[in-house]
Amino acid sequence: MKFVYLVLILTASSFGCQNKAGKLGHSAPVRNSHFKNTLVNKKFVTEKLIGLTNDKSDYNLKDYGLIDTTMAAEWSGNTIKFVDSLHFVSAYQAWCGNDCFTSVFGRYEFVDSLKVRFYTDSITRSGECEAPTVYGNKPPLDLNLVKSADGRLKLNYHSPKH
């Protein structure tokens, strides 16, 4: 009797341990990545805002910590901050308040070892171009995270060449 009871408990617990994606009939995204920990809690300077459009271009990432601190008070430009392992904020920042400040709030995930998928949740505009918050239903933006020959990180629209 104890044996039958033990078999029933083990059988029931094995069905309860399936991952949620499997229960819904979806495959779970692959989470293995070379660079995942390189992005978490980091801020980078970019040429343009990531997630504002689905522009098919490449983005160089310059570590924000490398900006000359004597000039930081007068620095202006676009940045992306990977807030945690799920959320990002891509924003324009400037030392003066007389400018158009656009911020993109969203989520990101690694869909394979190099590909990062960005989802835009909302876009805010303040300052000289104040406007209501836009909540997006944009298609995701897939970019490949690669390291250039000089060791800098890049988010490329096109697949890296092997």
Helix % is 10-25%
Question: How do the helices and strands follow one another from N- to C-terminus?
Answer: HHHEEEEEEEEE
Main β-sheet, in a few words? 8 strands, antiparallel, barrel
Q: Which class do the helix and strand fractions yield?
A: mainly beta
Unreliable residue runs = 4-33
Q: What is the mean pLDDT?
A: 76
Terminus-to-terminus distance: 60 Å
Strand order of the largest sheet: 1-2-9-8-6-5-4-3
User: What sort of overall outline do the alpha carbons produce when their principal axes are compared?
Assistant: globular
**Number of helical runs?**
3
Number of strands: 9
Content of β-strand: 35-45%
Count of separate structural domains: 1
Radius of gyration (CA) equals 21 Å
Question: What do these coordinates show?
Answer:
This protein is mostly beta strands. The chain is built from 3 helices and 9 strands; from the N terminus they run αααβββββββββ. The chain has an 8-stranded antiparallel β-barrel. The model is unreliable at 4-33 (pLDDT under 50).
Features:
162 residues; mainly beta; 8-stranded antiparallel beta barrel
Write the layout of secondary structure elements.
Layout: H1 2-16, H2 20-23, H3 36-39, E1 42-46, E2 59-63, E3 77-82, E4 87-93, E5 100-110, E6 115-127, E7 131-135, E8 141-147, E9 153-156
Antiparallel strand pairs: 1-2, 1-3, 2-9, 3-4, 4-5, 5-6, 6-7, 6-8, 8-9
